[in-house]
Amino acid sequence: MKAAAAALVVLTVAVVWASAQRRPRNDVIIFPGPVERQSAPQTGSSLLDLLTPQQMDELDTLDNVEDVIALLSPSGSLVLMEPPVQMIRKTQVFESRSAYFSQKVQLRRQNSTTSLFAQAKCLPRNRTVCLPKPAGLHQMYFPSCVEIEQCEGCCFSNPMRSCQPLKAENVAIEVNLLETNDSKKREKLEVFVEKHTKCGCRCITKKKDCTAKQRYNETKCVCQCKNESMERECRAVGNIKTWDRNKCECVCLETEHCATGLHFNTDTCRCEKAW
């Protein structure tokens, strides 16, 4: 009996001691170790943003990744990195690491990276073009579509650029004009279709698209507001107003339909008494 009682006392003391260790103590000062801080996001321009329009044109004509790196980073600070193994698993493009390296060797042998990009470059390519509908209500062209060279391809230097024709000519295509009513007449005639002979990557937004309040930025392919000081002033009151880049005006975040006898004040962005 005495042995059992002693064992019970020891067990109780152990439980109480363990509970005290888990409970936080206010009288103990804990000196923390070095605090790991998240680094602030790096701000700045992309390498593509620093290119001139001429360099963008050159970039869109390159076939080799080494040439692309040399153009983007003449100092050699930009390097081509191999994808990490965990990225290979996440993308699930290859089922295993061995399959990835096997495929990689095959790609090197075929030099398919270069050839695939060469196929996607901005060039005149055979495209199916639908002919315009005839003027008559009961008429149709046959064939109604033709294949002709027109510009198509990738412009990776700037998402604001697209593959566009630099030189073009009208080509006469002989088609059949069919009458689809009871007369069932048929005649041959020529329809002109535009053929592109030279292509290049150019801005989607043109200078003519800018308003009188905007200036054209050829490098970024955008229309930018001239009154930059007004934009800064507008952003200072961003809780009720926002800057409209299309109108180049400071506008209210929300507008209201005012009750009778009130009008919406665009300065205070609220309904007020009409004087």
Automatic annotation (TrEMBL):
One Gene Ontology term of the molecular function aspect: growth factor activity
Range of residues in the leader sequence: 1-20
Keywords: Growth factor, Mitogen, Signal
GO biological process, one term: positive regulation of cell population proliferation
InterPro entries: Cystine-knot_cytokine, PDGF/VEGF_dom
GO cellular component, one term: extracellular space
Gene3D superfamilies referenced in this protein's UniProt entry, alphabetically: Cystine-knot cytokines
Family annotation (SUPFAM superfamilies): Cystine-knot cytokines
Pfam (any one): PDGF
Platelet-derived growth factor (PDGF) family profile domain residues: 140-206
Family as reported in the entry's similarity comment: Belongs to the PDGF/VEGF growth factor family.
PANTHER family: LD28763P, PLATELET-DERIVED GROWTH FACTOR
Name of this chain's protein: Platelet-derived growth factor (PDGF) family profile domain-containing protein
Species per Swiss-Prot/TrEMBL record: Megalurothrips usitatus (bean blossom thrips)
Upper lineage: Eukaryota, Metazoa, Ecdysozoa, Arthropoda, Hexapoda
